[in-house]
What does this fold into?
Amino acid sequence: MVGLQRHYQNNYLEALKRVQDGMIGDIVAAQVYWNSPGVWVRQRQPSMTEMEYQMRNWYYFNWLCGDHINEQHIHNIDVGNWFKGAYPVKASGTGGGLLGSGKDYCEIFDHQSLVFVYADGIVISSHCRHFEGTASNVSETLIGTKGRLELDGGNKAIIRDLKGTVLYRHRGEEDPNPYQTEHDVLFAAIKNNTAHNDAEFGAKSTMTAILGRMATYSGQIINWEDAINSELSIMPKEFDWKAATPTNPDANGFYPIPVPGKTRVL
It folds into this structure.
C-alpha cells in the first residue's frame, strides 16, 4: 500500500468503470487541482538540532517531503495518470514562493502551475497552491470527446455530455471511508497471505510529481527519461540527529528557495 486512497474510493471506482465503458469518449485533456490554505508549522525549539527541526517540519523540506506537489497534489496527479492509463513524457511550468517563502515555508514553493504532456500529445494541466484566505479546490476534471467527468476527494462524480446534460451522478452519502477500505484490503492480504501490490503506480505517480517539481523549480522543459535517470541527490549523507542537513538557513533564519532559470534539477 502506498496511501493513494482514491484507488479505494467508490466515486472514483464507479466513475472509472463508466470512463472505460466509453461514456465520455476518448480523454483529450484534464485539469487537476490541490489549492488550499496550507498546513501546520512546528516551531523551532532551543534544544533542537537543525536535523531535528527539519524532521519535525518534514513537510517543508524536499529531501523529506518533495514539496507539496508531491505530498498533497500527488493525489490529483495520480488520478490523471490512472484514468488516462499512462504517464507523461515531459513537463513544463512555473511556480514560486510568493507568499509562503521564508522561515516557515523553508525551501518549498507555495504555488505551482504546469502541464504534463503524454506520448499521444494529450495535456493534463496541474495546479497547486497554499494561500491563506483563498478559495480551496481539490478536484479533477477529465474532458473526453463525448463529455466530461468531474471528481473530488469527497463523494462527487458527475459525468456530463458536451452540452452539459448530466449523464451520471454518483450518490455516495453512505460510501465507506476509503482510508479504512485501503487498510482493510491491506490487512486481508496479510492475514490471507495473498499478494497485493500498489508499488508500481505509487512509484510512477511519485515520479510524475517529481517531474513536475523539477520543471517548476528549473523553469525548463523536463523529459521523463532525463528525470528518472538523473543522479542528482538531495538526501543527507548520513542520518543522525546531529548530522549535517542538505540545506540550511542563512544568518537571518531564511532558507534558500529554488529560482527558475538558475536552479539545477538534473
